[in-house]
Amino acid sequence: MLELPALVNKSVPSVSAVPSPATNTSVEYKDTPLSYRIIEPSYVEKVLVSTNEQDTTLIKILLRQTRRPEVGDKFSSRHGQKGVV
């Protein structure tokens, strides 16, 4: 099997139940890396890294693909003029 490069090394809690604050148990995490699985090449357009109130890191990746227009594709200009190929 072909090993795909990881885009984001993601970790998720291994237990789906939320522990109560009264218990002082530590939550175990398992690695679930996010990898690119589409055949066509793409480019990373934008990466947004932020955190929430609980200091949980949130990463959003916007990918861009360059391809030829096909029949039925819709286009729109910045002024709202729309057209179909």
UniProtKB/TrEMBL annotation:
Gene Ontology BP annotations: DNA-templated transcription
Main enzyme class: transferase
Keyword vocabulary terms for this entry: DNA-directed RNA polymerase, Nucleotidyltransferase, Transcription, Transferase
Entry's EC annotation: 2.7.7.6
DNA-directed RNA polymerase subunit 2 hybrid-binding domain segment(s): 21-85
GO cellular component: DNA-directed RNA polymerase complex
Pfam families from the UniProt entry: RNA_pol_Rpb2_6
One example GO MF annotation: DNA binding
SUPFAM superfamilies with a match to the protein in the record: beta and beta-prime subunits of DNA dependent RNA-polymerase
UniProt-listed Gene3D superfamilies: 2.40.50.150
Family membership noted in the UniProt record: Belongs to the RNA polymerase beta chain family.
Protein name: DNA-directed RNA polymerase
Protein source organism: Dendroctonus ponderosae (Mountain pine beetle)
